[in-house]
Model the fold of this input.
Amino acid sequence: MINIVKEQKGDVLVVKLSGSIEESVDFDKLIGPATKEIMVSTKAVPRINSIGVKAWIKYFQGLAAKKTKITYIECSMAIVEQINLISNFICGGTVSSLYVPYLCQNCGAESAAPYTTDQVKKLEFKMPDAKCPKCGGKASFDDIAEEYFYFLMNG
Ligand SMILES: [Zn+2]
Done:
């Protein structure tokens, strides 16, 4: 089940999605019409399947058609994967921040570190090591930059 928390901040509707998007989700009903601008956080979306993707694209294309400015924040790794796979997944919107996968060299724990897309570009896609949240050991970027940041390198 998907859970949606909405907050109107001035002209911007901030929407936080949580849960897997694996069925036909009526985003129109759940989110409703956005005003001038919408910011969508997918920090807590661990999975999205093809049915979820269809519902997603239908909703955000509808917003784009109404000239709503769409910004995606805190994109989860599952969402980044779709952004890279499907060229119109972001429906004319902008990705401003995302989670980056890390793997601890010490205990093997997987974690995710938040970055803005500007930071990633400034780092030239060379992600620095981080501290493992579990053991404090050294965690390294756990993907292939050319693949994980494909949409940023080619967008
Ligand atoms: Zn660790």
